[in-house]
TrEMBL record:
Protein name per its UniProtKB record: O-antigen ligase family protein
Single GO molecular function: hydrolase activity
Keyword check for Signal: no
Main subcellular localisation: membrane
Keywords: Hydrolase, Ligase, Membrane, Transmembrane, Transmembrane helix
Organism this protein belongs to: Halomonas flagellata
Amino acid sequence: MIDDGQHRTVPGRLARLAHDRQDQCHARLAGMALAFFGLGFLVLPWWALAIVPLLLGLAALLSGERPPLPFPRRQDRWVMAVLLCYGLSWVIAGPWHDEGLRGLKEAAPVWLALLALVALSRLRVSSAWLWGGVAAGSLATGGWAVWQRLVENASRVNGHEPLHAILFGNLGLLAGLICLAGLCWAFGREQRRRWMLLLAVGGLAGLMTSALSGSRGGWVGLPLALWVLYRGYGPRLAPRWRLAGFGLLVLLVAGLYVTPQTGVERRVDNAVASLEEYLAGDPEMTSVSARVEMWQGAMRLIAERPLVGWGARGYRQAMRDRGAAGLQHPALGRFWHAHNDLLDAWAKRGLPGLLTLLALYLVPLWLFLGGIRSAARERRALAMAGILLPVAFLGFGLTYSFLAYPAGGLVYGLLLAILWGLYRQVPVTGQGRRSGGDAAKGEADP
């Protein structure tokens, strides 16, 4: 029999078929990890999210491929550095203040995000998994919130511990904002009507969750978050659509305010009344006056130890001592954080804690900023979501210490790693003048 070489193509085809199936397997596994994060970070216990980097790591191992893009690049190193240094500020503060390795509890969730980022560098995953997961999770959270309010008659809805009303409501708001950012991506899809409907309803569900939780602190940063969305959408919309969008937003906010079942009107009125009473010198302790006194106490502790801080136990004992000495209300000694992320980090972990927290906020803002003007819809959507993440946490952290909770650190770190891992792989097409991370010298965008 003459070997003409034709039979040699069969093993090659089988090998390619097996390779394609392997690619589909690990890509789907990675996609399910992203969807699991979006679906579960509010409706499941927070520690269940640890499975996300593990699944991504397994998918990366199964791929057996070289990274689709060089890793780590200069921008990747910035993301990795802020996550690593933020965790180190917790770990180092423990022994320094004779608290052992208790800082690992707060550092470990953030460091898990490093595994997710490294794994995503070896994978190509469709961002549809993330948008679909977050939208489904926001809808599930909104439904759960409505059930608690209407069926269980809860005055303020909440999630699994430690996601009490403040954490639950503000993270629900973040999920809704990310859904609204994803509308930019959905507009370019083949089934754009279905995707846009899903994400739009998911965005409304997130706003509803925030309203039903009564978490007023999240509403403080909402104007800045809406400005981010406007910068992403506004320049490309006709004036009539901008006006229509603004009118719809006003109607939505007014509807949430006047609907008795949401409790928004009552919460806003209480906040205004409490502030007026505090300014008038009323000694009664309210949520507003308690926060102001805690901020003042934290700032005085910072002035005493600005470089090294007091540590977690030292901060609480110092606040109790201040109450016993009559320098502030004694009841404030029961609170273990300063109800402000920046003050809490500085008071407990000193200047390194403050600087690493600022870097955790500012570096993502810098890296994603250039993409908000991208002509590529997927890149612009991911950039908006990447900017909304630190903007939202900055707003939340003005009146509450979100990142004092391991759950807050895990959500922030994983979402940053996922958004950056997807963003870095989206090609730049038709982009105008670049800034921030997109303009880093010597770095070519993917």
